[in-house]
Amino acid sequence: MKKLNYKDIVKKARALLHKKPERLGIHLEGSEARIVRLAKSPQGVFKLEAFERVAFNLAQPTIEQQRDFVRAVARVGGGLQKVAVNVEDPSLKIRRMVFPKMPDGDVREAIRWNFRENIEVPIEEYVVGFSPLQEIPEEGKIAVMAFGVSRKAIANYAERVKALGLKLVSLEPAATAILAAFTLNGVLNDDKYHVCVVYGESISIFTVMKGSELLFSRPLPNMCQGTLKKNLVRDVGVPETKIEEMLALWIKQSPSDSSSEEWAKVAEGDFNSRFMASMTHFYSNFVIEIQRSIDAFCIQYDVEQVDLIHVCDIGVRYPGLVRHIERTLGHKAKACNPFVALCPPDILQGSILDEAPSYVAAVGLALP
Questions:
Q1: CA–CA separation, 15 vs 127, rounded Å?
Q2: pLDDT tens digits, residue range 299-332?
Q3: What is the pLDDT of residue 165?
Q4: Does the pLDDT of residue 18 top 60, yes or no?
């Protein structure tokens, strides 16, 4: 096997952090993969060609998961083997930084130096990149959105994707993929501050965007469905399988039907009151974390408020959550729909409309 020298490794790692030609967008989140393929017309207009979700864990897939994933990629891709995947790794850092004006190479070294106290790998093993921001903090300085991830994480993603018979042509944070999807759909054309809150199975992400720029991104600690399930197991006092059944039914029918016969069979006794109390506590904590993130953004950029909150992924299906965010925080909130610019209105309805909020990152990843 041919060994790569240090310069070759750095070159390949950086190449994966930049956009490449036509590919499938694959958003890996929790124990699921969301796959999207876009088609581009001769006029340069993108449309949704196909999409699908499949149970899959890239780090430790079962033989059955590998088989189902490969088949799903074949159905969506129609033979296309180039893929773009999101990177979610403890070493991933995204941060706004301000420097004196300097060459790009020096900016990268400065970014690496700034990240050194927040990473657990040798600084020589850390790959960084950046996007210049339009703001001018003060004369003679520049502001950038800096990204960094360990070289080992990049290599692991590349090896695992290759083992599935696919070619990894782009590896990027979910936050930048979200920016691409919002830009494609024209959401950011109004020169306002748009927040996107992605509530997922294993992670929740808070981002702020304006114009064509990603201005702020951070994870919301302990605010994912996986953590919620653990809390419900503790609070309700039943096994996780029972909680999953209760949660699925609750999402399906809404709290107003919590006295229904179907719900009574699942949440017998005082399980119902314990479940609802735990969910109320979660809703409150979720809103608090969003407000903390808004405050952090406003302080960093010296702005008074954000303009609109978009909620994505599993959280959109939680009864009343979007409305609760809007009412509690006093900001307009809505479910995110990344398919708006990609599908005609007569197609964008029913199950496709219901599924759309879970595909925002996958759409961004699928863009060349």
A1: 11
A2: 999 999 999 999 999 989 898 999 999 999 999 9
A3: 93
A4: no
66/85 Cα distance (integer angstroms) = 16
How many CA atoms are closer than 13 Å to the CA of 265, on its beta-carbon side?
Answer: 4
- Contact (Cβ atoms closer than 8 angstroms) between residue 365 and residue 177: yes
Residue pLDDT, tens place only, 23-59 = 999 999 989 999 999 998 888 889 999 999 999 999 8
- How many angstroms separate the CA atoms of 184 and 334, rounded? 18
Count of CB atoms situated within 10 Å of the CB of 96:
19
Split at pLDDT 50, 70, 90, the class of 148 is very high
Asked if 128 and 111 touch (Cβ cutoff 8 Å), the reply is yes
Intra-chain end-to-end CA distance of the chain, in Å: 31
Q: What angle do CA 340, 196, 322 make, to 5 degrees?
A: 85
